[in-house]
Amino acid sequence: MSTDKDLLPVDPHDEPGHLPIADIPHTPRVTDTDPKAARRAERQVASMFLLSMVFVVLFVVAFVTIDKSAVVYIPVLGVVGASQIALGFTFGMAILLIGTGAIQWAKKLMPDVEVVQERHSLASTPKEDEAAKDNYDRGKEESGFARYTIIRRTLIGALALFPIPLVIMLRDLWQTPPGENPAEILSTTAWRDGLRIVPDTGETTGEFLKGIRPEDIPVGGLVSALPVNIMEIQKAEHNLNARGKAAIILVRMDPGEIRSQQGEGWDYQGILAYSKICTHVGCPIALYEHRTHHLLCPCHQSTFDLADSGDVIFGPAARRMPQLPIGVDEEGFLVAKSDFQQPVGPSFWERG
Amino acid sequence: MSTTSPLEKPAPVEKAGGAVATYVDQRLGSNRALGRNLGKVFPDHWSFMLGEIVLYSFIVVLLTGVYLTLFFKPSMVEVVYDGSYVPLKGVMMSEAYASSLDISFDVRGGLLIRQMHHWAALIFVAAMVVHAFRVFFTGAYRKPRELNWILGVVLLTLALAAGFTGYSLPDDLLSGTGLQIIRGIVQAIPVVGTWLAFFMFGGEYPGTDIISRLYSAHILLVPGLILAVVTVHLMMVWVQKHTQFPGPGRTNTNVVGYPLMPVYMAKAGGFFFVVFGVIALIGGLVTINPIWIFGPYTPDQVSAGTQPDWYIGWLDGALRLMPNWETVIAGYTISWNVLIPSVIIPGILFTLLALYPFIEAWVTGDKRDHNLLERPRNAPVRTGIGVMAIVFYGILWIGGGNDIVAVAFDMSINSISWALRILLIVAPPIAFIITKRICLGLQRKDRDKLLHGYESGRVLRLPHGEFIEVHQPINVKEMAVITSKTDHAVLPAPQKIDADGVRNPRYLVHSLRHRLSTFFYGDNVPTPSAAEIEHGQHHAAEQAAIEAPLHEYEDRDVIYNAHGGVLHHPGMPETNAEQIAEETRS
Amino acid sequence: MTVKFLAARRRNPAVAIALLLLALVVVGGAYSLASNAQPAVAAMGSQTQVEEGKKLYLEGCSSCHGLNAQGTKYGPTLIGVGAASVHFQVGTGRMPLAAPGAQAVAKPPAYNEDEVAKMAAYVATLAPGPAIPSAEQVDYADADVAKGGVLFRINCAQCHQAAGQGGALTQGKYAPSLMNATPTEIYEAMLTGPQNMPVFSDETLPVEEKKAIIAYVNELQQAPSPGGLALGRLGPVVEGLFLWTAVFAALIAAAVWIGIKAR
Q1: Which of A257, A262, B395, C207 is the most buried (most CB within 10 A)?
Q2: Given CB atoms, is A271 within the 8 Å cutoff of chain C?
Q3: Which residues contact C205 (CB under 8 A, 6 or more apart)?
């Protein structure tokens, strides 16, 4: 390229006839001229260091004496943990004062005359470049790397291949059960035909785990629910995976207000069951506005209309909320009529 | 200040220290390095301390982090809580969450260290961003420091990773929801997404592996990489010497400042303690991440107002503002609504960030070494790009907190989202134009100051009757700063066919380069020549000379105002200091 | 006093004032006597309370909710909402609405306790609906706070936020902060599902569970902040704001102080 360095001017301070480099101005400080001020500064610095030591002692006292559950009222902060405040304040001041002392020492008492040091170009001299090249050439010649073609090629092959075992050994980051793949696992949940729905109460035992009757849910009601066998599954699998896919919400509206559903008769007398996992990136979603029938996700504000097949009406979610078909069993409890007819939660490549 | 006289004996500690130095020197030759470096000069400007804030907060993060590892249990096994925090007694939770509660309520000083760790981490990333902007706006990334800039971008990425893996460890409802979002993002990656997500979590979400895997990344992998890269980053600064702002005595080939020992050591060392102390005070007095309020993580619960830590907030905002585009082709889904804001846009931004020094060098054709910092006004397009980036980032940031904004200011989140979507496209270009115009205006003002001095506000009537405003010549410091501006030549326009009739095969590339170069520096106000500057300053001095007799007059005689009051008489205090001195004397 | 004395002063201006005062005393006294008789009548049966309530309703509520509480396009029907709804909405000042808008905002109530009770009694007669909770129903003294926390996070936190600070709903609506809610208000809100809040009837969320939730909200209201200044308990957004303002100001101030030349 012919267009570069010739056109560009050098450092203006290097140009002949330019303004000369100004002298570095310096005015003496009070502590330079007045010995009383200097002694005062010395006392200032020393007292900061002394105060720091006092705070260390206070820290130890606070640590040993203040009960860890005690609270105290401090203006501006409110009612706060006493131990926390005491330890934080004493520790912080102890350290801070060392810093302010050192800085004050430098500012007031150490010389403040600025010093000039020359920069040297870091680039090697042509002789050094030459020496490097010579050494390299000698080494290359002696190794025979260029000459021994077969050695070279097989070496490159071996070096290229040896990391492969390291990568392959990462395979069991997920010990895949035989015959399974992620897409299939993501596409099914614990729900089955006839499986009872129970409310999520945070309990693992109790009357409620029997089920929910439709008459117990008022119009405008919202119930977070799970399959009746969820605790068995959790105990068997030792994790919360099933809960993460099977969590649903039951909402009840006037049957006349249901404009559309994802399947004929999937509701039960105005009670609709929808997945509780947002189809955007998977946050649980239970913010139900019972008059507008809108379901709002707190994470990214995707909004679904549950009176209209759970269609997306605002926000970044692209797909509607999956609906679970429900009915009642012989004893009058709400049950699922099948699994979800589409994968719940966020989209994925193989979703189709 | 005292100097040791040759007759004084060194203190015992000094003697011992000398012996140690000799011992090590005989084995490693260290005295040579000490000799070279104890007097190394470092320039002094507050904005150079930003990098120090990053380093010192990182050290605090490491120290407090080690303490936390002694108590934290990175296990997702469900246990029943039995500690001293009453509102969670008897609740099922993971051991990770339970041990975090123990640190907060049952280990004395545990909450202090936990909060210091978290605040220090926030400061670490924030200072890094401000430091990066300082480097950007002053052009410190230009040759020979391009490589260090790339290391800086790497460090920024590692810091984000460290922060994210860290705050997810307590396995509380807030950070766990963030992890759930990450799973959704990974899953959306085409072709390999689902497999990647399953490998990451050891199977289905949430599984029982993720916390311990994040733990190993957070305490071993990421800090190790950060330490290694930071060491190289600092070594490069040491070897290349720090850049400096233009000023009196400062050139492109020297460093003006204070020597390492004693001044810089004291100031830098002192600043370490100040940063540490501030972190300890904040960690003790201000709550951060009260995990006991959010409760233990379970994949079927969420709280309103769920946001990640501030440095991930812009990505959350991008996810909120993105329109819901998704395409399905032949049975395969591509979720643009997730990929664009979380993978594509950040990927492009970080790549551009890393490559920026090289892009600018190509555009300007500048191959010189730069050790003097450039004032932002002298590179209007660079400054404009930086402001554009800040505006873009800031809008996404606000988007990330749009529900908090809605509740705080009583607005509709839907309106806020729409407004921000539009602003995101429209505001950055407007910010660029405004910034560029401001920079050019400042350049013109500088030129005026050089040629005419600065306006003093005093009106003078010349002997022949003309009224002028007295211009004061600018002082030495300002002169040095303003004249540091270099004239950047624009790369010439290429010829399609040169004088000998040979076609230029790279005409398009050269033509693009010429156009970009013109855009970058073409509008710059030209610097006056040395002769012009001298003339201008001389002219200003002449005016001051005309005014001078008035001051003599003031010294010689009493001046009355229109009502007979005395404005000035000889011996009257001229400055506030003198006035105060007089009053305290009497 | 002689007639002559009075007659001689019949045109005195003070007479008018004295007569006025006399009239006020007589009328006022008669009224207070008459209204003092009211409670006795009311105590005998709620019929009068219902009538009074209906009067209050017609004056202050019927323009939006209809003459027969059947609802109009400005306000929903009140048939079946129960006494609890009225006690909640009017008692917290949400109703009557100050201005049409996305949300009814809690403000100083326009009616006193007595009037609210009357209006509630009237609305209760329209159709069966949730009753005002009894003192026993909102007595949370023995409730399990931890259980309440679990239930709160399942049913309430997604709208009201984990610390009860409130959250945004769509189109300018919001779930309000719970920091000033009384136990009765909380119970009534769960029971009646005001505005867009879902309805948590006593069948889906039994009394014991409601008590536990009230106990937990009470805990949130008066809990100390163990870590220091609470920053509103709103999460990382406010923490980030504090970082970029107060904390950074302190650090930059320190850096500038280091660089400034000493005097």
Answers
A1: B395
A2: no
A3: C151, C155, C190, C213
The residue from C110, C132, C154 where one domain ends is C132
- Looking at the predicted structure, is the pLDDT value of residue A86 above 60? yes
Q: What is the pLDDT of residues B309-340, one digit of tens each?
A: 999 999 999 999 999 999 999 999 999 999 99
3-state class (DSSP) for residue A10: coil
Residue C203 lies in a domain: yes
Q: Tell whether C68 and C97 lie within a shared domain.
A: yes
Q: What pLDDT shows up at residue A16? A: 42
State the total domains in chain C.
3
Q: Is B444 within 8 Å of B525 (Cβ atoms)?
A: yes
Mean pLDDT of C105-117: 90
The closest of C243, A68, A60 to B111, measured between CA atoms, is: A68
Q: Is residue C213 located within the same domain as residue C140?
A: yes
> CATH code at C54?
1.10.760.10
The answer to whether residue C82 sits within a structural domain is: yes
Residues of chain C positioned with their CB less than 8 A from the CB of A291: 195-196
Residues C68 and C111 grouped into a single domain? yes
- Which residue type sits at C46? S
Mean pLDDT of chain B: 90
In tens, the pLDDT along B245-275 reads 988 888 888 899 888 888 889 999 999 999 9
User: Kindly report the CA angle at B345 between B339 and B347, in degrees rounded to 5?
Assistant: 95
> Which of A1, A2, A13 would best serve as a mutation to test chain B binding (most B beta carbons within 10 A)?
A13
Same domain, C148 and C127: no
- Give the integer Cα–Cα distance in Å for B416 and B412: 6
Rank A194-208, B431-445, B487-501 by mean pLDDT and report only the highest: B431-445
Residue B178 touches chain A, beta carbons under 8 Å: no
Q: What are the residues whose beta carbons fall under 8 Å from the beta carbon of A318, sequence distance 6 or more?
A: A279, A280, A312, A347, B324, B325, B326, B335, B337
Residue C191 belongs to a domain: yes
Element (H, E) at B457: strand B454-461
Report d(CA A136, CA A147) in Å as an integer: 15
Query: Between C159, C172, C231, which is nearest B304 by CB?
Result: C159
CA B182 vs. chain centroid, Å, equals: 27
Preceding amide of B262 cis, omega within 30: yes
pLDDT reported for residue A87: 96
Whether residue C52 lies inside any domain: the answer is: yes
Q: Which of residues 115-174 of C touch A (CB under 8 A)?
A: 147, 150-151, 154-155, 158-159, 167, 169-170, 173
Q: Is the pLDDT assigned to residue B519 strictly greater than 80? A: yes
Percent of chain C with pLDDT over 70: 93
pLDDT tens column, A147-192: 999 999 999 999 999 999 999 999 999 999 999 999 999 999 999 9
Give the whole-angstrom CA distance, residue A49 versus residue A54: 9
Same domain (yes/no): C112, C142: no
| Co-location of C137 and C213 in the same domain | yes
Q: Using one digit for the tens of pLDDT, what is the confidence trace for A249-308?
A: 999 999 999 999 999 999 999 999 999 999 999 999 999 999 999 999 999 999 999 999
Q: Are A289 and A296 in contact (CB under 8 A)?
A: yes
Closest CA to C213 of C191, C195, C194, C192: C191
Sequence-separated (6 or more) residues with CB below 8 Å from residue B439: B376, B377, B378, B379, B380, B383, B384
- The verdict on C171 and C123 lying in the same domain is no
Domain that holds residue C196: 133-223
